[in-house]
Specification:
This protein is of the alpha/beta class and 307 residues long. The chain is 35% helix and 30% strand. The longest helix has 14 residues, at 106-119. The chain is elongated.
Length: 307
């Protein structure tokens, strides 16, 4: 894999707090990579350093083909988590404005604005005021703005986390198309989005990368039998989940609770299933759903950020 961008031992401190603590990774040219982690893990700080908005306290960022310590911002398209727009501008005016800021001549800015508005499905809304746009339309306009200077790397901070289901689907479908044309790095805490879009993932906890690799490699590396139990919200069931959390033994390797149940990593599916079913029956646990299978990206994520 030919790296497009390499980050080495990145550190960012704010006073006495290290928000990012020695992160190293490479983004392959033509790949789509996801930076995963819970809120406060250091994702946005890392994204802002890559986009040139924050200077690293330590470490280096290198872009293939550019001299050491070059300004890489001209090669990066950036969409923040909550982009701001001038509501009194039309979408087309905003895109022409963005093009001019990137150094395009007036005629080129107009042509590029029209091309990209069509590309993101906003050609029919280009003359409407941005203030009238939905959340999904604004995110698509933000993506168009990030592409206006034909960047080699598209960097997106939580691109769909604030959208309703319709807007989220619109943006995800657009990203599926864009990943065929350019290299993408996006941060998210929504795991299905990462599984749907990305080739590579990096899981961040407390400012450090704890898991990284290609999605197929990570699935294979961390593949283990699991049993997921979802319970009703009655007192006996909730108390059983509370007691069972973190308790291992026999065929049960680990037990991690989540919002409405508990997930067991096991060494033997059949033996663990018999054990747990007998135990839940004895203790009067009201089971809403039980699933036996193999670990998912969510299992890997929960284990990585909980240990």
């Amino acid at each position: 894999m030919k790296p497009l961008l390499t980050a080495e031992k990145l550190v960012k401190s704010f006073g006495g707090v290290r928000a990012v603590d020695g992160i190293s990774f490479a983004i392959g040219e033509g790949r789509c990579a996801a930076l995963l982690g819970p809120n406060g893990a250091g994702k946005t700080t890392t994204i802002r350093m890559l986009a040139g908005l924050l200077r690293p306290t330590e470490g280096r960022i290198a872009f293939t083909g550019l001299p050491e310590r070059s300004d890489i911002r001209a090669h990066i398209g950036y969409l923040p988590q909550s982009p701001s727009f001038y509501g009194w501008m039309s979408g087309r005016e905003y895109m022409m404005y963005a093009g001019r800021l990137c150094g395009l001549r007036a005629a080129d800015a107009k042509r590029t604005a029209d091309e990209l508005l069509a590309r993101v499905g906003l050609a029919g809304a280009g003359r409407r005021l941005i203030a009238t746009y939905s959340g999904g339309m604004k995110q698509r306009l933000g993506l168009a703005q990030a592409l206006v200077h034909r960047p080699k790397l598209l960097v997106l901070d939580e691109p769909v986390s604030a959208l309703d289901p319709v807007g989220r689907r619109e943006v995800l479908e657009l990203l599926k198309e864009l990943k065929r044309e350019t290299t993408i790095l996006f941060s998210t805490h929504v795991l299905p989005d990462a599984e749907e879009l990305c080739d590579d993932i990096m899981i961040v906890r407390d400012g450090r990368i704890v898991v990284q690799g290609s999605l197929p490699d990570i699935r294979e590396r961390y593949r283990e039998p699991v049993i997921t139990v979802r319970t009703e919200r009655d007192e006996a069931s909730l108390e059983w989940v509370k007691r069972r959390a973190g308790k291992a033994g026999g065929p049960v390797v680990s037990a991690l609770p989540f919002e409405d149940g508990i997930r067991f990593a096991v060494s033997d599916l059949d033996a663990a299933r018999r054990l747990l079913l007998r135990e839940m029956a004895d203790e009067g646990v009201k089971v809403a759903r039980i699933e036996a299978g193999y670990s998912t990206l969510e299992d890997v994520f929960m284990k990585a950020v909980s240990t």
